[in-house]
Design brief:
368 residues, alpha+beta, Jelly Rolls, four-stranded antiparallel sheet, disordered N terminus, binds N-oxalylglycine, binds nickel (II) ion
């Protein structure tokens, strides 16, 4: 096992304020949602209605077709259109065995259903980005998300903190490891397709991901008696290059901010929801944008989602592709080192809700 010298690694966290655990709140069978979870104004959840209009749904990319010469070009065009209009797409036939997906979902659910004391062995520690806890609790007045998470860094390998990898359920580690290897392969493949969709060389991005940062986050949203009042996960843009998310088969909940509305992403069993993060927005000089999204909750059922976040190595320089800069497309972003941006992102603690993208632009955009 790698024994990490964590002191020599960049630290991105800050002290988290302790709050009550949502899985425990629901055991108290309250008749009302505690005020700290109740949203107002633009943060009020919108409960999904009719999902039957496919134009209203995130485009679906069939990776099987990419492998067929006569369908490939058409499918890459669909990727371009999806990235351009949605910042999101779903992939099917991605090659990750469905049996592995089933196992990862099962162990995720089993972990969150363990007694609190057992989960707390893996609690996020101050100044650390990994472990079991809540998202971004930085102030006593901040509204809280109706959910919990388990975050684990997969790579670079020296960042793997095995003390925070659950040993219960017994097959947690082997399945998480196998799943993340599959995701790494798929992320590389998707980055090549995204490069191609912009007429860049297929290895354009890959070259910058030699010591990639990869983090898995399991999100668990217990049922809530008033899903119309709370959010499972506050609105945000993912700061990485790509996010790859497994939704719950039975309970949709991911919502995308598009055309001034919140659109619910349909749940397709075994499909992965892919979205562009801030790093790709910079590297494509804003051609593809990271889109703000959030998660809502469900009245009857708990929801589990499993996200993997993929980004360049800590010391990689991030800058717009020169090929995407010309007289009509002036350079929009400055150069920066990936870890400096991560540090900025985590130290702000305000990159949520209405500020989801403005703090990123404040950091990375060239000021006119
Ligand atoms: C995330 C995320 C959405 C969801 O983890 O960054 O956007 O549906 N999750 O849980
Ligand atoms: Ni996200």
């Amino acid at each position: 096992m790698v024994s990490a010298d964590f002191d020599s690694l960049p630290t991105f966290g800050r002290s988290l304020i302790k709050v009550e655990n949502v899985e425990e709140i629901i055991k108290r069978e309250l008749q009302e949602v505690p005020e700290r979870y109740v949203r107002h104004d633009e943060q009020i959840p919108s409960i999904p209605h009719d999902q039957s209009d496919s134009k209203q749904n995130v485009p679906i990319i069939d990776m099987g077709k990419i492998a067929q010469a006569h369908h490939r070009e058409e499918e890459i065009k669909k990727i371009a259109q999806a990235c351009d209009e949605w910042g999101f797409f779903q992939v099917v036939n991605h090659g990750i065995p469905h049996s592995l997906i089933d196992r990862v979902k099962r162990i995720g659910k089993e972990f969150f259903q363990l007694p609190l004391e057992k989960k707390q062995r893996y609690s996020v520690r101050p100044g650390n980005l990994q472990g079991y806890g809540q998202t971004f609790v930085v102030s006593e007045s901040q509204k809280l998300d109706w959910g919990n998470l388990l975050g684990l860094i997969m790579s670079p390998p020296e960042c793997r903190d095995m003390n925070l990898w659950p040993t219960e359920p017994a097959d947690f580690r082997e399945n998480v490891d196998a799943y993340n290897s599959e995701i790494k392969r798929l992320a590389g493949q998707l980055l090549a397709l995204i490069a191609e969709s912009l007429q860049l060389p297929a290895d354009y991005f890959e070259k910058k991901f030699s010591n990639a940062y990869q983090k898995m986050r399991m999100n668990y949203y217990p049922p809530c008696l008033r899903p119309d009042l709370v959010l499972g996960l506050s609105a945000h843009a993912d700061q990485v290059a790509l996010a790859l998310l497994l939704q719950d088969d039975e309970v949709p909940g991911l919502q995308i901010h598009k055309d001034n509305q919140w659109k619910t992403v349909q749940s397709i069993p075994n499909a992965l929801v892919i979205n562009i993060g801030n790093v790709i927005e910079v590297m494509t000089n804003g051609r593809y944008k990271s889109v703000v999204h959030r998660a809502i909750t469900n009245k009857e059922k708990a929801r589990l989602s499993i996200g993997v976040f993929y980004a360049p190595g800590f010391t990689q320089e991030i800058s717009p592709a020169p090929e995407l800069i010309d007289d009509n497309h002036p350079c929009l972003f400055r150069k920066f080192i990936h870890q400096d941006y991560m540090q900025d992102y985590y130290s702000r603690g305000n990159s949520l809700g209405a500020k989801a993208k403005s703090s990123f632009y404040e950091y990375a955009r060239i000021k006119k």
